[in-house]
């Protein structure tokens, strides 16, 4: 009986871990996309504004 209960607990822990990893990956990808958008926007803006700064 203990083995079955242990296996069930392990499966639950694995599922919780997978859910945490999935959420972390989703947040990381969103952050990277935001950074990429910011870089792309800054680069486009920077091309015109750099001429005036020199």
From TrEMBL:
Stretches for region Disordered: 1-54
Ranges of Basic and acidic residues composition bias in the record: 1-21, 31-46
UniProt-recorded name of the protein: Uncharacterized protein
């Amino acid at each position: 009986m203990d083995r079955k209960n242990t296996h069930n607990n392990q499966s639950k822990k694995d599922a919780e871990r997978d859910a945490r990893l999935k959420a972390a990956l989703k947040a990381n990808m969103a952050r990277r996309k935001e950074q990429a958008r910011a870089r792309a926007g800054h680069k486009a803006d920077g091309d015109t504004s750099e001429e005036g700064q020199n």
